[in-house]
Amino acid sequence: MREFLLGLRLLLGSGRGNRARFALMALGGSLGVCCLALVLTIPAILDAHDGRAAARSPRLHIGQPGAGRTWVQEFRDPHGSRPFGRVFVALGREDIPAPPPGLDRLPRPGEVYVSPALHEQLRREPGLSGLLPGVEKGLIGAAGLTGPDELYAYVGATRSQLGAEARALKGFGKDYPPSRVVDPSTLEALRFTLATLVLLPLAVFLSVCARLSAASRNRRLAALRLLGMSAKGTQRVNAAETVMAALLGAALGLGEFWLLDQVVARTGLPGLKWYAADGAVSAGTAAVCLLGCPALAWFVGRASARAAARNPLATRRTAAPRAPRVRWGLLFVTGLGITAGFAATGLGKHPARSDGLNALFMPAGVLMTGLGLILALPLLSYLLARRLARSGNLALSLAMRRNEVEPGSALRVVSGLVLLVFTASLAQGVLVELSQVSRTTSPTQEYGLPTAQLSGDQQRRLREIPGVDVSAVVMAFDDDLDSDTDDDQADALVATCAQLTALTRRVEGCKDGEVMRLLDPNTGDEPFGASEFALKKDGRRLTLRVPVPKDVVRYAGRGVTHVSNAALLVPPGELPPGAVPAAATLVLASSSDPSTVRAVLDAVGAIAPTADVDPAGINIEALRQLTVIKTLLVAGMVMGLVIGVAAFLVSVTDRAVERRSQVTALALIGARPRVLRAVQCLQVVLPLAVGLVLALVAGKLAETAYLVTGGGEVFWDGAGVPVLLVCAGGVLVAAVVGTLPLTGRRIDPELIRRD
Questions:
Q1: pTM over 0.85, yes/no
Q2: Mutual orientation of helices 184-194 and 408-438 as an angle, nearest 10°?
């Protein structure tokens, strides 16, 4: 306790510079704790979303229900790129279950309860009310919604109004949600990636903050040791200061996170919005931040003061420290060997998979590579300095001699930026893997809408949606009940040869202006006879009879497509002028890029909000999940960028203060400002350049190992190399700019004598 109080007295009474350094440590720690709280809270936000979805899920009776039961039927339709949930409830005479969360009572026939987001959507799109028969009686509370932007409604109905899919309702609430925000297997990979993107740079950043002004503090601690204080007591004095800075920084960081949660919860992220209460700091997160960060600062503070406590005379006389240990280099080599081994299996016929022990070895290899790269930087800086210090260039020799004497400075200054490039490469691999998993096998995406639900103006506007490359109509044959030839008829695609080619992968034998048979060799040829199609013109009903054509057009389909429903190709000119099919499907096609699909679906929802949209082969929930995952990865990359840049800025500022006496001494013996700037720049840029090269190599190996074990088709992401090279170049430029203020303009000889 005595050493702890002495450390506090030294903190408060050791001058303005020391107090400024303490404030810098606390602010840097607060930024790190804010990012740590955000990473730890993301799973809680996802769990809260899934928990509310499970709490409102209907539980159904098994077997034949008795009379008087309450019946329920659920609908999950797309409205644009957003899911639109509707729950129709028909109250029973005897058994009425408790209402779901967010409602005080179940709706009666003709009553509708909607979410706040759906209430606003109904004001913008009144046509949506056709999907919600009844009068709006109130809003669903937050306890019954997965998020503030969810489109959800409870509709009261009678038993006769429900369809054949209705089931007897037992109650609400299950142990699991109908669908999760992020699939559990994907969530594990996401957690590992966020840990690599954020937690690994965060640990380095907090260690950097705890070791600010290490040289000045070590000289002060050595003076205490020479005055008779024990070695352990000296270490405790130093640790007291770092613990207080970490504790204050943790408290500030939790406050910063609370403000960030309040702001972001209201604005939301792409694909993910949550209630502010979902992001509240839990007791476990607060304990990790308030106890874990000071504990890390305690160990770092004791370790940094060990040299001053054991050999105070060498510290006071600034004796040259011993060379960095080789064992940290072995950690890097071991991790690099593991990732390289997994990457090498991609060259053979049987690449490794992330199952069994590989599920542990591959992440362990990536973490060992990243951590070993950072811890090996002092050794690399020392070896590089010893080799280049004998050069004849004055600036290079001065810079390398300083790095040879103090190789640990490279760890504090450049580690954040090196780790940033390494994690950026790994994150790029995760995005490539997600793109492979979510990407459709077809380069185009189709959307089918019944023309009976669309006006002529809506059809025109739908065809003009930005991103829609081609449109056509699949015309259904006339299924008049009086006809005995329904089984012998076929649907027809009303399109030109160019439209058919755009909708399919390959077309052979197509002739414009002629009716032809459509044949996909992969699906076979079903026999059919002459087909009749009902048309409408000026309120009158017409019939178009199409005999079986002799000419055949062969096409290769693109998987799930509306074209496969048609066996006839009918040119648009075959229809009488002004006539439109009575029963048909408007087919739109766009690129299969997820962002384009979302944009087209949103535009379709805005033009025809009540029309049934069939996005062939697309799962709206999966599309939303992909958006959420990419959003979280981008958030992790942004946090990693903030932490890396913050570590560099904090280290550069501390370095400017620590090196003032050395810069002053060199200036007084005649060194020019240009030479001093070159010296300071080379001291940072050369270790950083070596670290960046290793980060690029190690990052690409880690990315390749992740892609190989992920089971996708892309193993070698060559397209990402230019991006990483540009990032590395930008980091070098930022480092050069950051070292320029180190020399200063005012020379104060007193700095040489000042302790």
A1: no
A2: 160
